[in-house]
């Protein structure tokens, strides 16, 4: 190692040691980097993220016990500061704010950089009259329209342009991303020429505000109560040493609990995501705008993409947009009468005949034995299905007692 490199590391260590009472010498480079992030953090949220990273890379040997305990205390303190700030902000209220009241069977937001074609998409899907222009930042406040899908109404919300730095408050970004955070699904609208770059920016801004697109929350259950110590079920799913999991949980203040693993867990980051109640998980897809040019092969990897050249091409994809909501359209009919196919019921895609009956009438749900199934999903007209039959899109159900 040359003298310049040595002096650089010495400077890092000096910064690294400050603020902590006990520091073992054999810490990893990853831990040092996280420690520097902590020292340079300018907000409780940034400090919390750095501390959680430090907890992942903290020495696991006995000499690091005091350090792990200290990190755990600082994590708890940072979380309290964040919660306190949120409570104070809620009490203050007032000031400029942006919000969109949810209506219809679900809410989908359109998100994109300036001049990406969001207004064109909104008009194509809902028919709402909006200003469409070639210059950026045409939309200055959320625009709302209703998309008809076989009688159901889906709310489509166009957000003003997202830019680099939106997650930090630039161009009202935190308020706009808050709308996306509460929505049911997200459509990212990007220009074909710069699709990869624009998609990367949008995903990054979402990630910075704890919105995870096309990811699922890790299936880890942690039950606290009258447990002594840590017990772990489903150890076959754990792809790293059990001792690392136990050590990490203790740094998060979890010393007595039952931990249940229900899927492959390959990293501590998955465990942290399961514990982090700030994270929200949304289904999303990319709409790649070719702006009248011939459609070529999509350039956006690792995320479901729909390409369009003219707005009318989006009509055929309404079924894909509805699928993002994880819901089903179901029609009901009375015996000896035709089904009304103009006003479907919208239910979770995990709903059963019994769930449908509860919507119709509580007493009916208690007495129902079976139902009759009609429509394209039935093997034959009036097919009998049990009360636990899982409903499918466009089912026509006649409930029998």
Q: Strand count, sense and closure of the main sheet?
A: 7 strands, mixed
In percent terms, what proportion of residues is strand?
Answer: 15-25%
Tally of individual domains: 4
What is the first-to-last residue Cα distance?
83 Å
Q: Give the overall shape.
A: globular
Q: In DSSP terms, counting alpha (H) and pi (I) runs of 4 or more, how many helices? A: 12
Helix content: 25-40%
Please write the string of helix (H) and strand (E) elements.
HHHHEHEEHEHEEEHEHEEHEEHHEEE
- Supply the CATH architecture of the largest domain: 3-Layer(aba) Sandwich
Low-pLDDT sequence parts = 1-18, 92-96
Give the C-level CATH assignment of the largest domain.
Alpha Beta
CATH-derived topology of the largest domain: Rossmann fold
- What is Rg? 26 Å
Query: How many strand units?
Result: 15
Can you say what the CATH homologous superfamily of the largest domain is? P-loop containing nucleotide triphosphate hydrolases
**For the residues shown, what is the average pLDDT?**
83
Structural class: alpha/beta
Would you give an account of this structure?
The chain has 401 residues and is of the alpha/beta class. It has 4 domains: 3-92, no CATH class; 106-215 and 279-323, P-loop containing nucleotide triphosphate hydrolases (Rossmann fold), CATH 3.40.50; 220-271, no CATH class; 327-400, Roll (Ubiquitin-like (UB roll)), CATH 3.10.20. It is 35% helix and 21% strand. The strands form 3 sheets. Strands 1, 2, 3, 4, 5, 9 and 10 form a 7-stranded mixed beta sheet that branches. Strands 12-11-15-13-14 form a 5-stranded mixed beta sheet, with helices on one face. Strand 13 (370-374) and strand 14 form a beta hairpin. The N and C termini lie far apart (83 Å). The model is unreliable at 1-18 and 92-96 (pLDDT under 50).
């Amino acid at each position: 190692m040359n003298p310049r490199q040595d002096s650089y590391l010495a400077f890092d260590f000096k910064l690294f040691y400050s603020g902590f009472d006990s520091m073992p010498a054999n810490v990893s480079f990853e831990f040092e980097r996280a420690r520097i992030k902590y020292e340079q953090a300018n907000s409780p949220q940034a400090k919390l993220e750095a501390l959680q990273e430090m907890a992942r890379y903290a020495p696991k040997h006995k000499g690091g016990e005091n350090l792990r305990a200290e990190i755990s205390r600082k994590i708890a303190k940072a979380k309290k500061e964040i919660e306190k700030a949120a409570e104070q902000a809620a009490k203050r209220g007032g000031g400029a704010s942006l919000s969109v009241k949810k209506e219809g069977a679900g809410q989908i937001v359109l998100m994109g950089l300036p001049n990406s074609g969001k207004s064109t998409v909104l008009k194509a899907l809902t028919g709402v009259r909006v200003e469409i222009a070639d210059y950026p930042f045409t939309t200055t406040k959320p625009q709302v329209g209703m998309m008809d899908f076989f009688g159901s109404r889906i709310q489509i919300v166009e957000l003003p342009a997202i830019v680099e730095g939106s997650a930090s408050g630039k161009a009202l970004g935190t308020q706009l991303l808050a709308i996306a955070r509460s929505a049911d699904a997200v459509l990212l609208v990007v220009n074909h020429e710069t699709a990869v770059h624009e998609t990367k920016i949008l995903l990054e801004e979402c990630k910075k505000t704890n919105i995870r697109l096309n990811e699922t929350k890790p299936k880890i259950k942690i039950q606290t109560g009258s447990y002594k110590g840590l017990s772990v079920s489903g150890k076959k799913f754990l792809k790293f040493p059990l001792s690392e999991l136990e050590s990490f949980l203790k740094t998060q203040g979890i010393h007595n609990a039952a931990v249940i693993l229900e899927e492959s867990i390959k990293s501590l980051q998955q465990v942290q995501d399961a514990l982090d109640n700030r994270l929200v998980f949304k289904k999303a897809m990319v709409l790649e705008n070719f702006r009248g040019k011939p459609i070529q092969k999509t350039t956006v990897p690792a995320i479901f993409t729909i390409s369009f050249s003219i707005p009318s091409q989006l009509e055929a994809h309404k079924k894909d947009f509805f699928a993002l909501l994880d819901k089903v359209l179901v029609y009901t009919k009375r015996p000896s009468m035709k089904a009304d196919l103009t006003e479907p019921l919208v239910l979770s895609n995990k709903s059963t005949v019994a769930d449908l009956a509860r919507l119709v009438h509580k007493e009916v749900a208690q007495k129902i034995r079976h139902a009759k199934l009609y429509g394209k999903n039935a093997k034959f007209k009036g097919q009998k299905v049990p009360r636990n039959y899982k409903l499918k899109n466009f089912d026509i159900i006649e409930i029998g007692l």
